[in-house]
Write a structure and sequence with these properties.
Helices cover about 35% and strands about 10% of the residues. The longest helix is centred in the N-terminal third of the chain and has 23 residues.
Length: about 750
């Protein structure tokens, strides 16, 4: 048998509603009165019990700064990107239009400046109105502010499930706590402080928290410059951001706006003429979409992503990834970076132009550092961070390592084979051991068999080039890209024409331990983790193939290494973040210049001399448009091409700027041969460093380098350039006593591509 409800007390009836609301109202009234008069003045056990319950509620509200957008800025202070969980920009009350202040008070809490946090008159009015079937809230602006602060604190702690919303999951106990905290808050803060806090925290739209963000989103203006119709519309929006959204529901938004204008007129906040003019104004949002994250960066999205990963990997910003993410995306940080927007624009244009339409998805990338500071000046590549029609989209950063030194993700490609751009480091050790760059070596030698007497004082050289020993693990005889370079030549000539056999003939007279020390000192490392997961392992120069660049290395690593030569032998770690401040202006950990002595100054000067000749007389002289010491300003560089042309480079520098330009295969295992390709309408049987990466480098440096300094390089010691050739000895079997004729040979287009033979020895 179904038990029938007593119709007198049925809450579905008008009388039931009145009784129910009177019951709650009585409790609230008693509890509010309990704060204003002694408990003894209130009779009745129900009242005493209610007051005791009320007294157990917390009376102190923790008002932390609300979640605020983090800004990543370029070196000149211009915005790169906003990061946020809640799109909010805090502003002071004097930066909020008085019309907005009046509108929100008119519609949400007309007695705001009269009550003490809880409006008992409003509560009674709401009870009567609701009993009549017109549901009405009674929360004051102070109570709403309390509720928003409580919810913001829960969100900041990751407790979103505990957030309380009016009409959804908020009970009587929640309302009582809110009332008590509101009364306590009014004793601690002024009305203006509460109003300012409320307007900065309140929700207007999923992409707009606080009045400043809402003003920009809906009207492309600031809170200070809101007009009367705009202010009234935003004030009305607070009640139901979805129902009164002017973008999706313009008619409902206008009706709500006009209601607010009517209230402002009734409360004598505006004149009849102002009211009528505002009501006649159509609802026409001027939307500025809120875009957050590096994908929507105004410039340099991959640099932005690199900066973001540096922050999220830094324990200074939190004990774990969750805490760091919370601090970065909710903390309202201001992050000043090293990026030069002008240099970035040029680098981006050159990277985009290098690949053309690019249906086969070849990659182009360019990065620059300042030699004496390590500051990263630009970081560009030819891809779109977001999917777009006709675009090569990728979220992978072609310029950086896959991981940082601690094994944290950097979202990087991990580099590419540097090819002949590794040769200057063998040349560096040649000069470091006191040898002259005009010493002649036997570049005709192609066979380096197993158990060849290499010298390595701190390890063992592995690898062999000997076709006759292929069955024993050797690679084929060492090769150059062109046949007419198998002959004696001086070491300088071998470098600027990029001859593989000359590099090996030089290495045959060196201590490989010394080459290793050079490579380590200038920060060279693999961009990919080792087989056991170790991040950024050293490039093992005791493996012969690494003399010719067989280990993947990132463009940023190469640019920083070459910058050492420009900086008179001092290596500076690359940095991207110069300062970080929080909402209160407190400085947080950032990066600072960190340099070390890496190469003797006189040796660095010798390398600079040689690498200028690459552009004057060697493989770099084929770059068009051409930069050289003869035609423009002092500049040094080295071209590089991998064995099957899948990776091509130019890395070079002036005294003030070092740049790595790369063009190659960024997909999968990067094994597609760069051969028989049509790029920008031109057919290439094989691509070489000077052909595509070269013009990228040349055009960029022509426009950007002068701003960073193009002073002449200091001259090397004279004996380093014109010293007496070394004599033949048992430990240096390839040394020749007299130079070979060279003037009849045209510059080589990177005649020494790297050979990937990893013969065992």
């Amino acid at each position: 048998m179904v038990t029938r409800r007593n119709p007198i007390f049925d809450t579905a009836t008008t009388l039931g509603k009145i009784l129910g609301f009177l019951g709650v109202s009585a409790i609230c009234g008693v509890l509010v009165a309990g704060l204003l008069v002694p408990a003894a003045a209130v009779s009745g056990s129900a009242a005493s019990g209610s007051i005791q319950f009320f007294d157990t509620l917390p009376a102190e509200l923790k008002v932390d700064p609300p979640s605020e957008s983090t800004r990543i800025l370029a070196a000149d202070g211009s915005l790169i990107a906003n990061l946020y969980e809640e799109n909010r920009t805090k502003v002071s009350l004097d930066q909020i239009s008085p019309l907005m202040q009046q509108a929100i008070i008119a519609v949400e809490d007309s007695r705001f400046y009269e009550h003490g946090g809880v409006d008992t008159t409003g509560i009674l009015r709401a009870v009567v109105s609701t009993a009549r079937g017109n549901k009405q809230g009674a929360s004051t602006i102070t109570q709403q502010y309390v509720n928003n602060v409580l919810n913001a604190n829960l969100a900041a702690e990751g407790n979103d499930a505990d957030i309380k919303l009016n009409g959804v999951n908020k009970g009587v106990g929640d309302k009582l706590r809110e009332m008590k905290l509101a009364i306590a808050l009014e004793k601690k803060f002024s009305k203006d402080q509460i109003l300012e806090g409320y307007l900065n925290i309140v929700f207007f739209n999923r992409d707009a928290y606080g009045i400043e963000a809402a003003s920009k989103l809906f009207f492309s203006t600031t809170a200070k410059d809101l007009t009367l119709p705009e202010a009234a519309l935003l004030a009305g929006l607070v009640n139901s951001p979805s129902a009164f959204d002017p973008i999706t529901h313009p008619d409902a938004a206008k009706a709500r706006r006009d209601l607010v204008l009517g209230l402002m007129l009734d409360q004598k906040k505006i004149t009849q003429a102002e009211h009528d003019a505002a009501v006649a104004t159509p609802v026409e949002p001027k939307v500025t979409p809120a875009k957050q994250g590096c994908a929507y960066a105004t410039t340099a999205p991959y640099f932005c992503d690199y900066v973001l990963h540096l922050l999220l990997n830094n324990p200074a910003y939190g004990a774990d990834t969750t805490e760091r993410t919370n601090n970065v995306f909710r903390g309202g940080l201001t992050i000043k970076t090293t990026l030069d927007p002008n240099a970035q624009a040029v680098a981006q244009a050159q990277s985009d132009a290098a690949a053309g339409a690019n249906p086969d998805k070849w990659g182009a990338a360019m990065v620059s550092v300042q030699p004496n500071t390590g500051k990263i000046i630009n970081m560009a590549q030819n891809t779109s961070f977001l999917q777009a029609d006709g675009k090569f989209d990728s979220q992978v950063n072609f310029n950086v390592d896959k991981m940082d030194k601690d094994g944290n993700d950097l979202n990087g490609l991990g580099g590419a084979q540097p090819g002949s751009t590794m040769k200057p480091f063998t040349f560096t050790e040649w000069l470091n051991e006191g040898k002259s760059m005009n010493t002649v070596v036997n570049a005709a030698q192609r066979v380096y068999p197993l158990n060849y007497p290499w010298r390595d004082s701190c390890g063992k050289v592995t690898g062999a080039y000997n076709t006759a020993q292929k069955g024993l693990g050797a690679a084929d005889d060492l090769q150059n890209a062109e046949e007419n370079y198998y002959r004696p030549m001086d070491v300088l000539y071998g470098l600027y024409n990029s001859i593989n056999t000359a590099t090996f003939a030089s290495a045959a007279q060196l201590d490989f331990c010394g080459i290793q020390k050079v490579v380590d000192a200038v920060g060279l490392h693999s961009g990919l983790p080792d087989s056991d997961g170790t991040p950024n392992p050293k490039i093992n120069m005791s493996i012969l193939a690494n003399l010719l660049g067989s280990t993947q290395t990132a463009p940023l690593t190469m640019a920083s290494a070459f910058a050492t030569f420009a900086n008179d032998g001092k290596y500076c770690e690359p940095i991207a973040i110069t300062s970080v401040t929080d909402q209160a202006g407190k400085d947080l950990p950032a990066q600072s210049t960190s340099c070390r002595d890496a190469i003797k100054p006189e040796v660095a000067r010798g390398v600079n001399y040689a690498l200028q000749e690459v552009l004057n007389r060697g493989s770099g002289s084929l770059i068009q448009p051409r930069i050289s010491t003869k035609t423009s300003f002092p500049i040094a560089a080295k071209t590089g091409t991998s064995n099957y042309n899948e990776s091509t480079w130019v890395v070079g520098f002036t005294t003030g700027l070092a740049t790595a330009a790369w063009y190659g295969d960024p997909l999968g295992n990067q094994s597609r041969p760069g051969q028989n390709l049509t790029i920008n309408g031109k057919f290439y049987s094989s691509i070489d460093g000077y052909q595509i990466a070269g013009p990228m480098f040349s055009k960029y440096m022509s426009q950007v380098a002068p701003a960073y300094g193009t002073n002449p390089f200091p001259a090397p010691p004279s004996n380093m350039v014109s010293g007496t050739p070394a004599k033949t000895s048992p430990t240096s079997p390839t040394t020749q006593a007299t130079p070979a004729p060279q003037t009849s040979t045209q510059p080589s287009p990177d005649a020494g591509k790297n050979d990937n033979g990893n013969g065992k020895g």
